[in-house]
Amino acid sequence: MDFALDDELTLLQDTSRRFADEEIIPVAAEYDRSGEFPRSVIKKAWDLGLVSTCVPEEYGGVNLSVLGACVVSEEIARGCSGFATSMMCNDLALSPILVGGNEAQKEEWLGLCAKEFKLGSFCLSEPGAGSDVAGLQLHAVKEGDDYILNGTKAWITNGGEADFYTVFATLDRASRHKGICAFVVPRDADGLEPGKKEDKLGQRASDTRVIHFDGVRVPSSQRLGEEGEGFRIAMQTLDRTRPSIGSVAIGIAERALQECLGYARERQAFGAPIAEFQAVQFMLADMAKDIEASRLLTLQCSWMIDQGIPASKQSSMAKCFSTDAAMKATVDAVQIFGGNGYTREYPVEKLMRDAKLMQIYEGTNQIQRVVIARELLSR
Ligand code: CAA
What we know:
Layout: H1 7-34, H2 39-47, H3 66-79, H4 81-100, H5 103-115, E1 120-123, E2 139-143, E3 146-157, E4 164-170, E5 180-186, E6 192-197, E7 208-219, E8 223-224, H6 230-266, E9 268-269, E10 272-273, H7 278-306, H8 312-341, H9 348-358, H10 365-377
Helix pairs in contact: 1-3, 3-4, 3-6, 4-6, 6-7, 6-8, 6-9, 7-8, 8-9, 8-10
The structure holds acetoacetyl-coenzyme A.
């Protein structure tokens, strides 16, 4: 068992770390305040090969492993998880094409994202179907060789910024998961309209929207896989991408720990730095041990996926454990900073707001526990 990153991944980690330090940390608070989308910064990350990382070499991409994507995500999220979410969303949007696309679709969409700076969105959730994917309502009706899509998607990352959307729709609502199809829809398709931008608690640099589909015509050449395979494509995508969510959470928790170590050494109480008090030390120690455990779980899981070993349970464990750990670490970070921590003058309140989303998106942590328990009980 070798826990060291190889030379290539170490270089990638250094590049991502430098990018976070130089390009993200100096502007993160401003983007958090304004809620603007940091397009120019994300373009710079794409120039460095840090966006659309899952595209294989044969389509001109950097062909990063799932483990490599985790290394990048952690470092970027240490800078700002809103940026990390926006960047990683491209891999989330492209993964259904990797998982279920044919050669022509891969050439077209994966090739496009390797060649040009393009953003994608993964359109699964709906106003009435977040956790219950099989209950989604966006309707696809076959008309000749096309499908006509009608309905609404919700909480769509990169929603107003994307050049293309991977969209899950149902041919027959009563068939639940068996009726779902996946499509790639370009932004300029008639009837596709991004709606209201959400005014979020955290990760405010990421663009989250409702997307309306009003009679959107999609040729069957843009359907991924066979009719009815959409649910499987969505689940296999999430199995691949959930480890990176764990890594984003680790980046947030690591940043909280670094901020706390600096502050606890400086801040005086009862005539001594607060770092000398066990009450503070225990919180620091818990953060550090939870970060280590999260990292081990996440890297092991991504390694399994890269080896082709089924890892639904581990993916859910990594996502759930790491994001719960980040939530606890950031709440404790605000506690260590005391009154200062509750103000925008200091970075920890942002980390706490950002961490909350991690327990919700790409499947709530309650859904992750459902996946884990089902696998345990089905043995
Ligand atoms: N891989 C392959 N097949 C799978 C699978 C997997 N991981 N999981 C389930 N399946 C198969 C099952 O074997 C079953 O197959 P059969 O038809 O042969 O029986 C079928 O799919 C249906 O499975 P279930 O009975 O388990 O389905 P379910 O309706 O009970 O739901 C669920 C399962 C795990 C709860 C699922 O609905 C789920 O993951 N929900 C969470 C959704 C989610 O994560 N949303 C995130 C949106 S994306 C986002 O947030 C991103 C963003 O923008 C930042």
